[in-house]
Request: fold
Amino acid sequence: MAREKVNQLYKHGFRLYEEQIATYIKENYSGVSKIEFSPIFVDGDGRFTMRTVNVVPVIYDEEGNKAYLGRMIGQQGYGNYGTGNGPVLSIDSAGEEVIELKDFDADKVYDVSGYKTLPDFAKLKSNSLMDKNVAALVEKHQLEAVEKSSEGSPDIEIVYNLEIREGDYTQWH
Reply:
């Protein structure tokens, strides 16, 4: 029962987190045709090693090029997309889910526990870390003709992934 409850928390929290990421890209970048997400990777045993939970966002440009966010580009790392840098997930003393999404640029944390879809107040207005990551992917020609734009990519295809896997997210392709 406890494992099912934790897995449900991961699925709910990461569904909202993936939507936050996808919405930011959709509304702030032109030239993107698709964004998809890896399975939700759970690593560590939670006893002797800290449990981490991560996803890998993947962006496709209109030319069909595919690039992974949060990976090393040359010697530069851009942070992961998971519980270390993203959602705060827990179960409170009453057994209820607590899901908080961070907005580092605004220095805010949004409680989205009771929502099935991302509420407007939790949409990111800016994300400097993601912006630097996308700029580096364009500079290294992993993505072509993707640029920061208020026009966004309104026709983007978004593929959420709520499958849970044990293992190292960095090995996923």
Notes: Residues 2-163 form one domain. The longest helix spans residues 2-28.
